[in-house]
Structure formats: C-alpha cells, structure tokens
Amino acid sequence: MFRHPLRSFLPAIAIVVSIFSFAQLLGGTRLRGLSNEVAADLAARAAAAVVEEPEVPEPIVKPKRTRTRKTTTETATAAQDTSPTIPAEGSVPAEETSTKPKAKRTRKPKAVKKEEDEIDASQQSRSPLAAEILGNLARFPHCILLTRVGQFYESYFDQAAEVAKLLNIKLASKSWGGKRVLMCGFPIMHLNKYLDILVKQNKRFVAICDEFMRNPTLGPKGGFDRRVSRVVTPGTLIDEPFLNAYENNYLVAVASPKDEPGSIPDGEPSSKLGLAWIDVSTGDFFTKGTTLDELRDELVRIGPKEVVLDRSLQPLEQHPIRQVISDESLFVSYIEIADTVDIEPPSQDPSTQQPSDDLISKPESPRPESLVQPLEASEFSAVQLLAAFMHAHLLEHMPTLISPNREVDSGRMQIDAHTLRALEIRESMREGGTAGTLLSVVKRTITTSGTRLLTRWLCSPSTSVNEINTRQSLVAFFKQRSHLRADLVQQLGNVEDTTRIIQKFLSGRGDASDLLAVCSTIGVWASITSRIQIEKEAEIQRREVLGDDWTSLNMLLTGMCDLRSLADSINRALVQGDAAYASTADVPSSGIREGTTDISDSDMDTLLSSSQNPARHVASSTRQEWSQLGTRILDVTTAIYIEEREAFEALRNQVKSQANDLRKNARILDELDVTLAFANLAEELNFCRPVLREDTSYAVVDGRHPTVELGLLTAGRTFIPNSITFTQNEPLHIITGPNMAGKSTLLRQTALISILAQTGSFVPADSAEIGIVDRVFSRIGAKDDLFRDRSTFMVEMLETAEILRRATPKSLVIMDEVGRGTTVDDGLAIAFATVHHLLSVNKCRALFATHFHEIADLLGYTDDHKGRGEFSGISFFCTSVDEMEDGYFSYSHRLTPGINRDSHGLKVAQLAGMPTPVLSIATAAMSHLKAMKNGERGERQNLQAIGQMLASQQHP
Ligand SMILES: Nc1ncnc2c1ncn2[C@@H]1O[C@H](COP(=O)(O)OP(=O)(O)OP(=O)(O)O)[C@@H](O)[C@H]1O
C-alpha cells in the first residue's frame, strides 16, 4: 500500500486517539467486544468531535446536544446485545434477523418519555436527518431509501414497515416531532446481503444515502454530509458481490426512431426499433437496429435483467412492445429523456471505441473509421434512453460511456427465442439451470470474462466465413500444441476480471486491491506473451521457418498494448500484502475507518484496562497533555491520509486514462481463453474442424449430439452417429420412425453442429462441410401457455407461423411433429402445407420429423425414397426398431433412407409401465384399426394424386 513514512505509526496513533478521545466522550464505557470496523468508525467520529465545528448536524432525538456523540457510541455498543426502544440519530436500528437472540426492551418511565416527545417536537424543525430523509423520499419516490447513520443503514416512516417485512428484520419506532415514526435498519456490513434481497429478488429500486466527509482536505475533522450517491436497480449493478461473474448483467433500452422524445412507436410488425444495451459492471456496450417483429428474439438472446422504455409507453399496457416484455416476464422501467439534461451520446471517435467482439479477424481494433457505421436514428434514441436511465440511477457512479459495439444482422446468425430455449444453448428447459446445456458441455474457459464471451458467441454465432476461419485456425493451432496449451491455460488461472475492475474505476469505485489486481494481471499478460514468444523461437529453431498456422495468433496478439509502465507506477506506489487499506474517491465516511483498522480489540482492551488501572492511573493534568497530544497526532494522521488519498487519486486517474488499452488487452485474453477452450474441447471430445462455405450446402458425416452423447457416455452407453446431407436441389428431409428412436435428437444435433461451427468451434462429427446459416429456427416440443390463453396447439401454430414468415433460403429449420396437437386429419393437412411452404417459398434447409406417415404419400413418395414432381427436393429417412424373436426389441437410432410407417407407440407404453390390461386392449384395438385401413384399397394412390394436384394449383 502507499508507504507514507508515518503510516506505520497509525495503529498507535489510532489507539491513543481512541483512548483519550473516547474515554472522555464515553464516560468510561467499555469497548469490549467492539468490532474493528465499529471501533475505527467511532475513532473517526470521536476525532471529528474533538474539533467539532458548528455546522455538524444536530441530533434529533436526544435532549442534550452534548450527549449526541456519546449516544452514537452507546447505542452502537449496545448493538451487540440490546435494541433500544427509542433509537436516536446515529443509533442502532432494530435490525436483528431471526438468528439473533431477542433483544431486551427497556421501557422508559412515562414522564421521561413525555419530556422527550416534547423536546422532539421543539427540535423537529431543525432536525437535519429528518429533513434529509423526507427530502430524499420526495426526490426518489419510486425507491426504497436506505440512509446511512453511523454504522447502520436505516429506513424510516411507512417505508420502514415494508423494508422490515422484505428483509425479515425487526420493525421499531422512534419519537420524532412528537410523533411515533416507524424505523428499521441493519449494520452496514450487511448491505450487500440485503441489496440482493431487495433488488435482485424483489426487483425494488434502492436509493443509497451515504455519509461523506464534508471537506476531504480536512479529513474527518470537517464533519460528514449525507447524500444519495446511487440508486441500485436490477440492471445497474456495478460490483455487487452477488453478481454472477460468469454472466453479463445487461440493462437494455428499446426505443423508436422518432427524434422526439416520448414519441410512441407504432405497433406494426415491421416498425423499426433501436436497442442499446450495456453491462454496467463490465462496460460491454452494444446497439442494434431491429424491428418489432424481431424484438422478442433479440431480448431473449440478450437476456437483460432490466428493460428501459420511454415513459410514454407506461400507460399503454396493450402496446406490442409491452406485450413482448410481459410475455417474456422481463423487468421493465420507464424514463423520460426530456427529464434529463445533458445526455451526451457516446463518442463516434474510433479511438474511444470498445474492442469489437471479434478481435482475431479485426486485430486493429478499435475498429478503423471505415468500419464504424453511424448509428441509426432508432439506435441513437435507444442510447439516449439508456444514458438517461443510467444518469438518473448511477448518479455519482455514472461511468464514462464509450462508443458502443454496433451489431448488424448480416454479421451474426440469428437464433430465434424458441430455438435458443429449445436447443438448450444457454439454459436448460427442465430446471432453467445450465446442466445439460450446450454451454455446459463446451465450457472449458478459465476466466469469468472468457466465459461471458463464449456465451455471447454461442448465442450469436458469426456469419463471416473469414472470421470463423480465423477463429478455427487458432483452435487448430492450439490443438496441435498441447504443451503450450497447458501452460497458457495455467497462466490464465491468474488473470483477474480486468474489464470488471476497469469499470469499477470508471464508475468511481476502484480501490487499492483493484489496483493490485490490475498490476498482477498486466504481469500475467506479459508472461503469456513471453511464453508464446518462447514457443515461436523454439519452432523457428526446429524448422528454420515459422509455420503458416501462426498467422491467426500473430494477428490477435498485434492488438496487445504494452502496459508495463502502468504496472510499474502501481508497483512503486503499492506494497503487496497490505491491500486491505482502500481509499475511495469522494470518501464515504468509511475512508478513514479503513486507515485505522489496525487497532485490534485486544490492543484496545489492554490499553483501556491499563488506563483504568488505579495503580497506573494518570493524574488529570497528565490526561490533559495526553489529550492535546492525541489531537496533534490526529492532525498528522489526517495529513497522512490526505497525501495518501492524493497519491491514490493520481494512480486511479492513470488507470482510467489507460482504460481503453486495458480493456482491449482483456478482450484479447478473452478470445485466447475461448479458443484455447475450443482446442481442449476438440481434443477431449474428438471434434473435427468443419469447412464453412458461402453456399447453402450441409454435409455432416457421422454427426453426434454433444450433450446427449455425453449423457449416454456417463451411463456407459454409446451414441450412434448419423449423417445428414442437404444440397441445393434436395434441401428438405422428412424423418419418420418409432417413438424414442432418436428423431428429435437428430434434428437438434443438426442445428447445434451448425451453431458450433459458426461460433468457431470444431464440431462433433467425422467431417463437416457447412454453408453459412443466417438464421436457425426450431419447432420442437411445446408447452401450453394457459396464462396467456394459449393452448399447446396454439403455441405450436404460433411458432410454425413465425418460421414460415421469416425463414430465408440461407436459414436452417428443424420441425418436430408439427400438427400433432390436433386431430389426425387436421394435423396431417397442416403438416403437408407446412412442408410445401418450406420447400416452395422459404426454400431453406429443413428437417421435418413426423409420425404422420401418410404425408409421404401426399408428397409422392417414390421407391428411391424421394418426393415426386413438385416435391422432388424432398428426401425421406427413417429410424427403426430391431425386433428379436423372443419378443425383445431395441432402438437402432441409425438413420436409413425410407419411410417407417410404424411408430411402435405401444412399445414405449410398455416400457413406461402401462398396466397389462390396458396394453392388451390397446394391442387388440390396433390390429382392428390396421385391418380397417387395409380394407380401403387405393387410399395411398388417392393421397398421392391429391398431393400433386394441390401443389400444382395457384394458392392466394
Ligand atoms: N443416435 C443415438 N444414439 C444413441 N441413443 C440415442 C440416439 N438418439 C437418441 N438416443 C436416445 O434415445 C432417446 C430418445 O430420443 P429422441 O427423443 O430423439 O426420440 P424421438 O424419436 O424423437 O422420440 P419421440 O418420437 O417419442 O419424440 C434419447 O433421450 C437418447 O437417450
């Protein structure tokens, strides 16, 4: 830490100050059991009291002003064992969770209480705390207000009842201005625990009113002020310990392109909308232009913790934007841009751009000017809305907004909302957790920020062959060099979450331990680059020439900035191992406390008891001298503190000024982490490198489903691989087969392989050649949505309609059992029409699994397992059941050309333990039904004729 020459005397100084200031102020109250933090706080307050100036806020409740500070101490001490009936300003509120023993209530004689009430009444008009609280409640009417009073955060008036209930803490009351006022509170060290409950769990806004030194140059002597420095909302968390570091915590604004603030976007599906989203804790900031039609997909992909809309939408519950947000159960907030002055959009200067999400192929990031496209009007509105919300809530912790990363549809594969869920890319459908998801299977990243990047890539794969190839080259490079891979993975374990730390500095929060983290990470970056350099030199020595496969890594690393001088500055100022000391910008009252935390309880006790020991009791004149000495020492302490603070501030500014370079290096390391992870994955699970093309081909030989395969492996079973080939002339496959024979698995694996390939990963197959997919759509399984008056069949139809409207010739569609939720005739008719539309209108690659084997006849099924005439682009494949003579059977899971007209549903019923009488009746019924169908000779031929006739007709 800052090694000011006098710092080593601080413990002694603090002790002396504590003893002689406190002993007098507390009237000999014993401090036994006082925590360091409390003791240190009291030291600062007591120190302030020694030189108390007239503007120090007056007490509200206590009748005798001279006892105010003493009351603080008494009640704070009492926090260990009692809860006062009438808490005073700076006193212990009635926090006590159920785990704590019930506090004794000490009733005051009625006469005393009456007197207090009267005094309260007389003091009400000049009660600074009451005025502050009432003022803040009026300024932040939508928030729960937590006001710091000494070592506690307190809530007052009616709000206290709600807070006490939500936090399960005791509700008390105090007398203020002759009235009983409700109050509750908790010790400051529990703030994060309770913010988690209020903000994350209950989605409440919390305005935090902290204490700050009135004049930092005077230190605590100058007294303290209170002000709301931040409103914590679900989308504006900065470095709260309850944040999941492996996930982004996004705040997203949705706006219409209208220039006028407050204009209501029209409800047309094609109406343009702008999105701007930021993770306040990491600074990851993006914009995108979209349409109302695609809003749901975008929001589900981004997964925001909070959505910001213009206030004009608040009363319009039925507005389509509101509907999407409510359907997806997203938390929404409103703001008026007009309310907020001076909202500067982020700079368009490329030098202030944050690194793009695809550094390998664009190593010169920040992106060159030519690539920086101006924001659309709708995006600009969204940025304004987002900035307005951030200003209004982050207040003093508002970070500098750098230019956002602008997303464009053409650069990313679009995965619609249903598909993201159905393919379980990020979240599992069953428990909503991550077990069994694609992310959980492929995740080999070491760092938290690398994992966040991996998640973004998986949810938004690239559509640029160049970008994908560069990522794959890097994976191939590391796959071939296992020693280098292992060394780098080990070093990544020492990398701190730099983007998050930088953001702390940019929002005025970084402390000394964060400086140390920055410093050590710069060191790790240096050792990673030097390890790579060693590898390079060894290779040149061995082969006399550097392999072409170094190109991608060289490209990535050219973007690394040399930040050793920053590390040196930090190193010079800090001494490792003393990171507990932390300074803050505007010095909340905790600033000085931490400088005095060296006082141990036992030190205190020893010195206090020695001062109370009659044998060593100092004479009162000596006491006077010591007291003066204490005051002088305090002056020195303050001077030290101020110097340290200035030194710290200088370092902090240095980090801020190099924030862009730090951020860029961190992002490069994230990409290194992800590509190393892909290399490990390919090695461990035997994945192959796919070839990506700019066409609509798809040829995967012996592909596997990554998560099902892993599940089977752990159960000692083997996954049966299958091959799928789409060509331009045969883009659609119909899959039939028994229940439980692997149809859905095949559909999913086909989509997952293309997603993995376009993410830059290798894929679970023997070989793969894949034409770039612009959008993946799926219609797999469906749950009903009775809450929104939608039956299972309705949900199925909504999803199918969406796909048929939006799939393009470059899309990949997987559809499982469309039409199963209604009668066979209705279902078959819908399935047939859907296939026809996919083939003739969407013209996309599609896998269509069904139990309606009659569809094959409608599509003109021929002996070479293809459709006829209009349907010649359709190929038929099936799975089957291998039946043994002894009545046993097994699923082959192997895909073969053809059609399987037997669903073997009764076998699954038997496996599921259906009662024997039910099974025998079902078997008898089945044979009757088959006999009836066989009687209708010519049915198949009739269906074929109908199918061709329908396809050749013009339909509106
Ligand atoms: N290729 C495969 N190799 C080995 N086991 C497989 C394979 N495909 C699927 N399975 C196993 O079979 C189970 C059922 O697969 P799936 O759900 O894909 O069948 P389905 O044909 O879609 O069934 P249904 O028609 O009843 O929906 C899977 O959970 C998995 O355990």
UniProtKB/TrEMBL annotation:
GO terms of biological process kind: mismatch repair; mitochondrial DNA repair
What's the domain of life for this entry? Answer: Eukaryota
Cite a single GO MF annotation: ATP-dependent DNA damage sensor activity
In the UniProt record, the signal sequence range is none
Biased amino acid composition, Low complexity: 345-358
Composition bias, kind Basic residues: at what positions? 101-111
Q: Where is the DNA mismatch repair proteins mutS family domain?
A: 811-827
Stretches the record annotates as Disordered: 57-125, 342-373
Question: Is Nucleus a UniProt keyword of this protein?
Answer: no
Q: Which InterPro entries match?
A: DNA_mismatch_repair_MutS-lik_N, DNA_mismatch_repair_MutS/MSH, DNA_mismatch_repair_MutS_C, DNA_mismatch_repair_MutS_core, DNA_mismatch_repair_MutS_N, DNA_mismatch_repair_MutS_sf, DNA_mmatch_repair_MutS_con_dom, MutS
Q: Which family does it belong to?
A: Belongs to the DNA mismatch repair MutS family.
UniProt-recorded name of the protein: DNA mismatch repair proteins mutS family domain-containing protein
Query: What species is given as this protein's source?
Result: Meripilus lineatus
